[in-house]
Amino acid sequence: MKKYGKWAFYLLLIVIVALIPLYLNRSKSGKYTIQVLTMAMIWAIATLSLNLILGYTGQASLAHGAFLGIGAYAFGIFVERVGINIWPALILASLITAFLGMLVGLPSLRTKGPYFAIVTLCFNVIVFKVFENWTWLSGGLRGQKVTMPSYLEARWARYYVVLGFLILAILIERQIVKSLLGSSFIAIRSNENLSEAVGINSFRTKLLSFTVSCFMVGLAGGLFAMEKGSLDYTITNYMYSFYLLIYLLIGGAATLAGPVVGTVGLYFLLDKIKGIGEWRYFIFGLILIVVIIYFPRGIVGGAKQFWEWAKKKYYRTGEVLE
Amino acid sequence: GDGGGDGESVVVKIGLNAPLSGVAAGYGQDIQAGIEMAINEINDDGGIKIGDTTYTFELKSSDDGMVPEQALANANQFVLEEGINIIWDPTANTIGPQMGINTKAGEEFLIMAYTSVPLYAQGANPLMITMPPPFSIYLPEWIKLSMGSGWMKVGMLQTTGAYGELWGSTFEKAWTGAGGEVVAKAPADYYTTTDYTANLTTVLAANPDVLFIGGPSDPTALVIEQARGLGFKGGFIVIDQAKLDDIADITGMEALEGAIGVLPVENGADFWPAMTDFTKMYEDEYGERVTWETAICYTGFMILSKAMEAAQSVDDVEAIRAGFADGDVSVTSGDVYPVGFEGIDDETGALLMPGTSTMVVDGVFVPGEPIEWWKL
Amino acid sequence: MTTLLAVEALTKRFGGLVAVNKVDFEISSGSITAIIGPNGAGKTTLFNLIGGSIRPDEGKVTLEGRDITGWKPFSVARGGITRTFQTTALFEELPVWVNLVIGHRMRTRSGLFDALLYTPRARREKKETTREVMEVLGFTGLAEYADMPAGTLPQEAQKRLAIAVALIGKPKLVLLDEPTGGVGLEETDGIITLIDKIRASGVTVCVIEHKMRMIMNLADYIIALNFGIKIADGDPQSVCQDPSVIEAYLGECIA
Amino acid sequence: MSFFLNQMVIGIQLGSQYVLVALGLTLIFGILDISHFAHGHMYMIGAYLLYIVMVLGGVNYWLALVICMAALSIAGVVVERAVYRPLRGQPHINSFIAAIGLILVLETLVRGIQPDALRVPKPIDKNFSFLGINMEVQRLIVIVGAIVFIILLQVFIKRTRLGTAIEAMSQDREGAALVGINVNRMSALTFAIATALAAVAAVFMAPLAFVSPEMGSVLVLKAFVIVVIGGLGSMKGAILGGYLLGILEALAIAYISSAYKDVFAFGVLIIILAIWPTGIFGGRD
Amino acid sequence: MLELNDVHCVIGKHAVISGVSLQIGEGELVCLLGANGAGKSSLFKTISGLITPTQGTIEFEGRPIHKKNPEKIVKLGVSLCPEGRKLFPRLSIRKNLMMGAYTRYREKSQTAKTLREIYELFPILEERADQEAGTLSGGEQQMLAIGRSLMCKPRLLLLDEPSLGLAPLIVKKIMETIEGINRGGVTVLLSEQNASMALSISSRGYVLENGHIVLEGTARELAGNEEVKKAYIGA
Ligand SMILES: Nc1ncnc2c1ncn2[C@@H]1O[C@H](COP(=O)(O)OP(=O)(O)OP(=O)(O)O)[C@@H](O)[C@H]1O
Ligand SMILES: Nc1ncnc2c1ncn2[C@@H]1O[C@H](COP(=O)(O)OP(=O)(O)OP(=O)(O)O)[C@@H](O)[C@H]1O
Ligand SMILES: [Mg+2]
Ligand SMILES: [Mg+2]
Fold first, then answer.
1. E1-77+157-235 domain in CATH 3.90.170.10?
2. In this structure, are C161 and C190 located in the same domain?
3. Same domain, yes or no, for C42 and C56?
4. pLDDT for the residue A312
5. Which residue of D lies nearest to A278 if distances are taken between CA atoms?
6. Domain count, chain D
7. What is the mean pLDDT of residues B358-363?
8. Interface predicted TM-score (ipTM)
9. Structural domains of chain C, count
10. Minimal Cα–Cα distance from D244 to chain B, Å?
11. Which residues in chain C come in under a pLDDT of 70?
12. C65: domain range?
């Protein structure tokens, strides 16, 4: 019964989220909000991908900005220069990102903890420099245009596409972390030496997690290109890796709702306070410090803890009453 | 203000998509100042009149931090939330992506592009106006000045990135075409590098006569200073992003001896009488020296308002774009506005404003003649 | 009885120190072997060498005749040897039952596609894992703690959980490094009983211990190390009376 | 040959700055385990302090060095107290988020107060020539000064009671408290020393470049890489790594390509970590 | 010398010490018995300041110390050899020991003498003086931990299961050493799993269960008590 209640809640949530564009699409400014939501959901997919490797497998990748860019460019180039239909292009772009992710993972996953973070950061810097300098690849100042088929011209259409992929990404991540494979991921996060001692090939497991994670971030990149309609080399900037990390930790790592809540919340906040100019970064910075101090497990983690605490209190009084 | 006419009065919003935070914030603010000055002047005069309606202007600025992704979002927000259809943008890397979205049906907007990169070279955009002259126009004169001084060997140390690379390759082609030699190349990222010595020693080891340098003004000044510090005695060819007067403030004129670049803005008064007053007006209001950005954007906005009048519309962007070519507009010249103007290249959308080179000789900026590049 | 594990001339040096020095011994299947010796004798190092977490400088380890020298820890575990650590190692923030699921992971095959598509194999293995977890929880007497994070368990329950995690992978041999270190008298008895049960269930045990009384009752065979060298081996009585063992380790024979 | 020598010297000078910043970071990141990404911004504050003290206050350069070190250590202590101490006991990566927050706050604040880049004059505005190398005296000051402070720090950490106490505290807080070490005071002291080193780097480097709000952001990235390459917590590693990166960059500009110098330098660093997964001096995991 | 009055402690949500009162006189060797999880280690931590009691007072030589920080309490002469050793794993043995004498930095020659005494007690520590503590074997680490807690020349020494993981011969030696230290004038509070061994050297003892003191008496009384025999001595 309880389980059905939960699913009913999720279904209701999806219905509400699906109805939003119907309301917003009536005005021009509503259309802009649709666009902001769409972008936020794309970033949320990227954050979910980081959640897999960092939140669940415990490896802090700082290269996800680069992989997002690689996915976006792969998609843009397939669509624009090769002339492939967008759907196979999206899959191809994700596969290519996953493959490159695996190549990067091979040397870098030999390292652990901060070493891994720095190796991936170095990798991101390199990718950024390469995209900056290879104008034949990145399109230089004009960037890379990405033309969408006419049925995706309307913002609400892209909103539904992205929403669909976001739900898919959440489901995929859920399937993985609740599975036996997921228990291997979590084991490595918890205690890598012990995992090895009980027969888990930690390198292969991490590599798999990283590759899947890169597939997802490549997908987010493709959707990014689809939504923006235009790309340039700055999309590979390592600042985006930092942002993904911020979204994830503020939202709540190793939870399924955390990445989505953190990303959508912060992305929206940053968009809304744009009007106050440069000082928005001051406010944003303060928010980061305060939230991380008072919600070390992020917003969702904190809420969960509170919920558990409240529940226990309830049960305890229940016991007394008996 | 209400224009004093009989009809109604409407406020027209103009968008500015510029770096207003971070390294290039000062640059964005110069642009902003030019537009603001023009708007204030027009509004104080009662706005522009089309039919019975009086129109005044209001500037909406949005910070894009030179991040294209952000610029695209800002543009969308301008168009959709504010109903804006004219957007000013002063950085080539953020204009490029916007050229991909500004013709979308129902969401058209006119890009007022402040960039010397001829972005239209790879395919014109029907809804874009480009203000400063394309950078390539200076090259023949600069090369002449340089080679006239007997400097045939150049070392290249301009900024990296797409803009710098474009400048570099254009320059290199022109230079070697004119019989010069590129003896060494060590471009540096002017936005992040704080010490250019390693680049400089590398280039100087090849004994160049002249250095091709430039990026934002401050780091460019540092390059010059460090080059002199390393004992370099030759000249500099400075790309148009760097302003020689700002550089002189930092390095002093002595270090600038032999520098070739774009004429400092105040010397523009030699050719365009209105510059003198404009310079003073700016200094009174903002308490610092005016820049080309401000002067050109001011002029550009004035021309825009004329184009609106010619088009008899403030929101039909295609008509406004066409209005730029209207005879009424092209009479304007350096007598009324601080920068000379002779109409528009209707095909590319480039405003026909001349550029002027200079060379520092014996501690003074010796100006060249304004280059009327559209006539070449 | 057949030989399960054979160690030949195993040697490990740390700088100038020879922590394990040409050690030979055999463990026959179904037995309980105890390793004793003074502190720093090289007992834990010996376990690390067998378990693969460090590589030997010389010598050979064979499991059922198969050379496993220099294998990575996870391969050794899959080959049939699991272990516990001297300072109890657990997946601390995870619930007890998840610790066991992880321990059982090497007996299951389902991978990415099973997870995504929830294939029959995934379903079957999940069921199988649940069954095994319940069984081991019962076997080690940890059922009451099943949902608690492992790190919050009492000392002695943690020790038992560490053994349970090692057992659930169905090894042929478990290596227990001081399973009763820091455990009180009554609880020690519980762990002794558990070790007996493990042997009875057909798993060979090798244990490092300092509690001689316990060893004397439990072990079939004792190996004594000192300065990395095997100084004695044999049945408990003979080792206990061995003068070199008494001098280096026991002080007096307890039995 | 003299060109190569020249380039090496410049590499060493670049490296000197890296080493000073990286050494402070080794203390904070390698020893206290705090991802203090705002360390570069403390360096930036140090440069502004120099401007205030020397240019506005008219104080002598060397005295200004001392004042800046003192003032910045206090700033470091404040940062530790206000931002990082409340985070103690949380997952390590959380300090990274707080640091990013701090970066945004500091940079916006400084730019809000003074948007323009500033210059600081050189204390000795001369050049010197030696073995075909011709450069500013200030660069010599950087090189020699860095060596002096490196030695001072080494002696402090390895030879003094307080230095060992810092190391001890970083390895086991409870154990440290039990032998009578005031752990809070030690964390504060560590921050004070680390930021004082950042001040040294800033005071040495400021006359050679601009003082601007973003001057520290690229530097800190490199410092992090250096600390990790050298092996976490290893001073030797930070020193070697810092000079290595400086020389690599200088040589990459000279012999490979200046546009790809980061690609080359960071590429080499990736290779190093692929060979030694815990850094050159095999710091802890 | 040490007096606990109705001390209560809470860790997280668990009450781990509930109403413990005990006195230790100058020069005594008192032992603390109790099953796993009874709260022995928590009590030690409370005395040495790592845990602040929620209620009750602790006095050392007449001075209240229950609100003091651990480093202050060490300075007063109370030293704890903790459960889990809490060594500095990447410092050498010598530096670990020198850190033990952190509070005695003014007495260079005295510390050197203490160091020599400890080396005599555990020769292996001198042999390996430059080895990093983290690479020592379990038992070697325990010796180092005891050595370190002695370096500050405490007047009250708290030993939390010092024989943990030590070989029988060493355990014997340690017990003798503790007796020796006590005879030298240091008051000792000792917790042990090996109750018979602990009782054999101590003068008095307390039995702790679930955070309460359930029994106290002289060593001989306790050793004779049936319940103690059954639960902690066996056979
Ligand atoms: N990584 C290492 N580096 C240097 N020496 C080491 C290392 N690991 C272990 N040693 C040394 O090797 C010797 C054997 O250690 P080991 O841990 O095997 O002893 P042990 O027999 O398990 O002792 P205990 O009963 O005290 O646990 C010890 O002297 C120890 O100091
Ligand atoms: N950090 C903690 N979080 C939660 N509970 C704790 C914590 N530390 C101790 N406890 C609980 O407090 C109680 C007393 O623990 P303590 O370690 O003091 O017992 P002990 O008598 O020393 O046991 P042992 O013989 O195992 O060392 C136990 O029930 C333990 O589970
Ligand atoms: Mg051992
Ligand atoms: Mg205890």
1. no
2. no
3. yes
4. 66
5. D108
6. 1
7. 92
8. 0.91
9. 2
10. 15
11. 1, 253-255
12. 1-80+172-255
